[in-house]
Amino acid sequence: MLQRRTAARKQASSSNGKRPNGNSRRRKKQRSNSIALRAAIFVVSFTFTLIIVANHLFGTNAINGASANNNNKRDLLKFYLRNKVNANVPDDAIDPAAEERANQREARYHSLYRPKFDQNQLGYDIYNCPSTPPDHYPMSWTTVEVLSNWMPHDVTTIAPAYREIYQGLCVFDYTTQYDAALNYRKAELPFIIRNDPNVMSTARRWEDDTEYLHHALGDETLFRTERSPMNEFMWYRLRGKGMPRGYVKPPNDEINMSYGEWLERALAKDAMALQDEDLSAKVDAMKKRRVQLVTDNKKQDDSLENDDHDQDNSTEEEKLKNWYYFRLTTSLRHANKDPSPEKFVYDELPFLDPRKRSESQFYIVDPSEERGINCRFGMRGVISANHFDMSRNFIMIFGGERRYILGHPNQCKNMALHPIGHPSLRHSKVDWNNPLEWDENPEFKQALVNEVVLHAGDALYLPTAYFHYIVNLSLNYQCNARSGTTHENAKHIRECGFNMG
Fold first, then answer.
1. Cα 334 from Cα 96, distance rounded (Å)
2. Which of 121, 198, 210, 480 is deepest in the core (most CB within 10 A)?
3. Which residues partner with 191 through β-bridges?
4. Cα gap 501→491, rounded to integer Å
């Protein structure tokens, strides 16, 4: 934005100088480029429409040709990316209707989720934090206080009802408080930063139109997706036969699922919770289209039904009850492969790309230690068990809302963690939604935590080994990037039995 404004001022200034002919040529060239760009967008859009129609009428070969192999026949993502036009649309070209919808979502967010404590109670204003972090930052409360105020399974809040949040984290504005946020990052303290124009641009695309990602990721390309008959997901890794005595594997597992089917099922959870008839009708239309797509593919190739043994073979009734956590994991190794999901993600999130330092230097702290971009798209009600990770992390939301309950590494002894050697090491064994289990683990009731509700455009900085418990409050799009490990809290982690190296 700043670069465009500067360029505009320079152009206006030079128009009063001695080279009007050069400006005239530039204006003609700009008009020519603009016309060419519009023409290109029209051609791509028109071609895409024709091919979709042809695919519906004549089968997948209308897209890929008679000689294409089965994988290419089923890969709409390749077509989308191959024909994508990368155009830098100026801010003044934003659809006014989209702008209004964004404003309505923002107003709704601030209406539903309100910080419980003000500056007088915290000792600092979370929206105007001092440049130097206060000694007691961030303010925390016991798990009993925070969880009793808002139980994790209670995810749907409809106005005029609202939630009071035990928020102790500062919220910085990228455009006006960048330096202050940088001080907190250098101090390895958690905070939220929002209103980064680049992050907001991606959030607008992803959140405003559910079909944007749908067109990009398609109905047929399959992605690793976590599945569970319960809404709580516990990470685990089974190694060998030496399981702890009495160990019971969590009910969640992994299957392959298309983005289109995951979106359908996530929207179904929202429609049911909100009793939204229009959304229910959209889900029904998506289901009808998915079933027709499967039928058409089987007609073209009878072997398709057996070509992926990791697909979700649950009955339709079981799928309606199941919970799904969509995963899109990328790495720089595949970021230049065009077309690919990896390239799409890196193109959409340049601020998490370590190769683009002018855009990512705030978020990718140590480029040499980057670990790719990991996206987790959640459906309403899905919970990820409390745990800590061995690296710093920037977590971004590009649509929907998520609740994070956070704890300092010095609370490690109070978090009732599974120990080293357990398949779910580093994760709390306590059901945070069950007060009876709190009583069975009295140290857990003394653990100090705080909470935040993130929405589209928010970025949360989590230093190494910070605890986080995640509740998906609606369909949402979250991506995060890790970049290096720090050791300022290694003592606390070692004291509760873990080694940070």
1. 37
2. 480
3. 461
4. 11
